[in-house]
Design brief:
Layout lengths: L5 E9 L10 E10 L2 E7 L5 H4 L4 E4 L4 E4 L1 E3 L11 H8 L4 H6 L4 H10 L2 H17 L2 E7 L6 H17 L3 E9 L10 H18 L5 E6 L6 H13 L3 E6 L7 H7 L4 E4 L5 H10 L2 E4 L1 H6 L8 H7 L3 E3 L13 H12 L3 H7 L2 H6 L17 E4 L16 E6 L2 E2 L2
Parallel strand pairs: 1-4, 1-5, 6-7, 7-8, 8-9, 9-10, 10-11, 11-12, 12-13
Antiparallel strand pairs: 1-2, 2-3, 5-14, 14-15, 15-16
Helix pairs in contact: 5-6, 6-7, 7-8, 9-10, 13-14
Bound molecules: N-(iminomethyl)-L-glutamic acid and fe (iii) ion.
Length: 408
């Protein structure tokens, strides 16, 4: 009887285990998979023969590198329509905030999303998820936030759940009811925050539709006090907290996320040194979204030096959304994080593996190559993992393994 369902061999491993040095690299390494789980990882020459001697299947890496499956921990990939018209307006000089204040921006996607059928939303979102998988993604977070009424927010979350059932990817869902004030509640901000806290959150939690709750803390969105209400209501229903913080202005969002025990604070372009310090003390992960920085033509970068100095873990995500980051490529997100924010290629890969897993509360299950973890792997035709954020516009991903199954 075979002891191993799949043996991945013939190349090198970037395990991303911190204790193993840069990239957690293992030259001439193998990954043995049994029952969807990693059974053994290490150098081929010391692999236990009883584990790797007679595999059902061998995946030959052909001299390339194996990494943990990539984790895109911040997306808004379920949405109707697109906003290419606003892209043109911004290129002609209008700002993202001006467009939002004139009723466009997030609210234009809300109109398109409410009008779309669930099949349309599912089909367009599936195409985006498939594109992510083709670049090595095995876990993706998906937010609601383009419904802004109870029915459409829950509909978005169930579509996100359905994506995880239909496609070979783990989907983590986040309720982002506090993304923008819907037109029905103009002049009644407190009424809308009530709706989020008293109806959306309890229902999403009760129906098992959300794993986390998020809010957009910004001048064009919600105040720190309003966001705090939302994250506290989420926590009361067992949902982890996330926060869109300090993207366009410093609202002390990073410190707020830390104070509320949120798993992450995301964007952070305007975060202060104190914000970074508070995140470190609370163990809040920084989620860097260089696609939005690039696409909106921002000039102020997140305080990478302070985040590093204080020891804040840094994740990277696509922020895939129609307004600020129509980026459907985790590799380009890593590349932009290096070029625009000054991350090292190793920090970039950690940002889409180990650090991203902790944003989703999946450390110990995914994000590194280690025995006992889910067998989610990506195989790359590169001669060193620093090539992953180096190439632009080519996809060196050769194979993806999800829970032990090689995707065809
Ligand atoms: O993460 N910042 C807020 N939310 C999104 C943008 C959403 C939109 O413009 O549709 C973001 O950048
Ligand atoms: Fe976002």
């Amino acid at each position: 009887m075979s002891t191993c369902d799949l043996l991945v061999r013939g190349g090198h491993l970037a395990t991303m285990q911190a204790a193993l040095g840069p990239y957690g690299a293992v030259q001439d390494g193998v990954v043995a998979v049994r029952d969807g789980t990693i059974a053994w990882v290490g150098p081929e020459e010391v692999a236990p023969p009883e584990l790797v001697g007679d595999p059902d299947r061998v995946l030959d890496v052909d001299g390339g590198w194996v990494t943990p499956g990539l984790i895109d921990a911040h997306t808004h990939l379920v949405f109707g329509g697109d906003r290419a018209d606003e892209f043109e307006q911004r290129l002609a000089g209008a700002s993202y905030e001006e467009i939002a204040r004139a009723g466009g921006g997030i609210l234009s996607t809300v109109r398109a999303t409410r009008a779309a059928t669930s099949e349309e939303l599912f089909d367009t979102a599936s195409q985006r998820v498939r594109a992510l998988i083709s670049e090595g993604v095995t876990t993706v977070e998906v937010k609601s936030g383009y419904g802004l009424d109870v029915e459409t927010e829950l509909r978005m979350l169930s579509i996100a759940r359905r994506l995880g059932d239909a496609l070979p990817v783990t989907v983590s869902t986040t309720l982002l009811g506090a993304h923008a004030l819907p037109p029905e509640f103009e002049g009644d901000r407190a009424g809308y925050v009530d709706l989020v806290c008293r109806e959306m959150i309890p229902r999403a939690a009760r129906e098992g539709l959300a794993d986390a709750v998020d809010a957009f803390c910004e001048g064009i969105a919600f105040t720190p006090d309003e966001c705090a209400r939302v994250l506290r209501a989420g926590a009361a229903h067992g949902l982890a907290g996330r926060l869109h913080a300090d993207q366009l202005s410093d609202r002390s969002g990073a410190a707020l996320a830390a104070r509320l025990g949120a798993r992450s604070a995301d964007h952070l372009e305007h975060t202060s040194d104190e914000g970074a310090r508070a995140m470190a003390a609370a163990g809040t992960v920084a989620v860097l979204l260089p696609g939005a920085f690039h696409f909106l033509g921002e000039t102020r970068t997140p305080p990478i030096g302070a985040l590093r100095a204080h020891g804040v873990a840094m994740a990277i995500a696509t922020d895939l959304n129609p307004g600020s980051s129509p980026l459907v490529s985790p590799l380009l997100a890593m590349s932009l994080a290096c070029v625009l924010f000054g991350l090292t290629p190793e920090e970039a890969l950690c940002g889409m593996t180990r650090a991203a897993a902790s944003v989703l509360g999946m450390e110990g299950r995914r994000g590194v190559l280690r025995a006992g973890l889910e067998a989610d792997l990506a195989v790359w035709a590169v001669s060193h993992p620093r090539e992953l954020p180096y190439w632009m516009g080519v996809n060196p991903c050769r194979s993806v393994v999800k829970a032990g199954a090689v995707l065809e």
